[in-house]
Amino acid sequence: MKIMKKFIRYYRPYRKVFLFDMICAFGISIIDLAFPQILNYLNATLYLEDPQTIRRAILVLAAGLLVMYLVRAACKYYVSAQGHIMGARMERDMRKELFDQYERLSFSYYDKNNTGEMMSRLVSDLFDICEFAHHGPENVFISLLKIIGSFVLLCWIHVPLTLLLVVVTVAMLLFSLRQNKRMQATFMENRRKIAGVNASLQDTLGGIRVVKSFANEKIEREKFAESNERYLTSKIDNYHCMGWFQSGNNFFQGLLYVTILVGGAYFIAQGTLEPVALATYALYINIFVTPIEVLVEFTEMLQKGYSGFKRFNEVMETTVDIQDAPDAQELRDVKGVIDYKDVCFSYNAEESVLDHINIHIDAGRSIALVGPSGGGKTTICSLLPRFYDVDSGSITIDGKDIRSLTLESLRQNIGIVQQDVYLFAGSIGENIAYGKPGATMEEIIDAAKKANIHEFILSLPQGYDTYVGERGARLSGGQKQRISIARVFLKDPKILILDEATSALDNESERHIQKSLEELAKNRTSITIAHRLSTIRGADEIIVIGEKGIEERGTHEELLQLDNVYARYYRLQFEGLEESA
Ligand code: ADP
Ligand code: MG
Prior knowledge:
The protein is an alpha/beta fold. Helix content is about 65%, strand content about 10%. The longest helix is centred in the N-terminal third of the chain and has 54 residues, at about 50-105.
């Protein structure tokens, strides 16, 4: 019931349209119900004496009918056009809300959910919901009106005949419901099987290089043929069911007419039924039976719409665990003093990742985090922009707890360069401008120069307008990284996080980018994570993160003197370099 209330809320902005839609639906039903009555009128007219009056009566009838059909057409237009438009508007509203919610949801949600599924919610679930939202009330309303109205009129014409009709109709209804359920099951199976075909296709095409290099085309062909065949089998089942459903329904309709014909003849012979009344009766049967079929098919739409809305509602009701506190303040005039005080954090209850971590960084200073992968370095960095919140302890910037600041102002003051770079569909210029929406061309070029990518961009035929393609597929790793560095130059934050920014690059590109990164780190508080220790020698403090948390800390020289974990790492890499040189 609660979910129903939630659903009705989406009608609220359109209640006038909805009301008018219902009125038009009502109009259509009434006109359809009135139509068979003309037989009575016609019958009465034809027995009139005077041909003149007959002619006039028929003209009046024709004019009346014409008006009726004009009104019906107008109603029909409103229901088809405005009703659907209302559905589409509701779909737009829901899609917007869902998108906003997706943007609000925290990283912890994205860790658990798959983006493909989220996209399908945005597209197909919402379509199902709104198809139902528009057709649902109208279908039920029109159908019930017609069923009840025609039933009353049928009873009014002849009660015993109508009892016969009900018996056959109930049999037909039982058959329809059963057959429809079967048919829907085969439809679902169809959808699963075609998904299998698509998955198989995607897998083979996506991995075509691997397929060919192993010369495994034959195996892939057989695998594909199998899923293709399974799809065919499910379609065959589906069409068998559909055939049964349709032919069965047709038969029952025929049976209905035979019953009425035989029964009607009997009652006419008995003298309880007029022949013209039987003709009117036959017309009403159609009005009575068709909406029953509509309702049977409607059960499917209802099911889809309901489960779609349930899924939609699930997302909408997911609590956003990281958001602005009610009295959140703007982070302004940042100096860049960062403090991690006794920070504990875990992604899930089973395993603690950070255990009482203390880090202090003075404004404009740099620290480096080193250690084995999985130690928690990235996690430490993710806590600063509040991608996740600490379990206990606190993190402050210039003495202010980050939880007391607005997320927007906090994140605007932190720049992040990571190993993976995500480029959006669009031009190189647009991708750099992502660092500062509304940036001027001069600013973009200036940032590109600082990131050492300006010359390269100019060497492209379309310069800054060059389209980067899906995820930047047309650029090398180093080029993409430079674009992401240019973004951060443009953003110009006081605090900088470099998380293995150069780890994916070869030595040559790394050396080049290193210079830009050093330039970027100037006058900013920075946290650097690096595998290659040569890049962090100059850090004001190096913190070694191990299995058991912070294992040692100090400057490069101090740690070498300590001659423990860091010194061991350093020698290992240094000797490695000597050998390869
Ligand atoms: P590092 O950057 O030092 O390699 P991370 O901070 O990425 O280490 O990871 C620390 C630990 O937290 C690892 O055991 C990792 O498996 C776990 N972890 C990292 N990210 C997530 C996540 N989003 N959800 C659950 N566990 C995670
Ligand atoms: Mg990491």
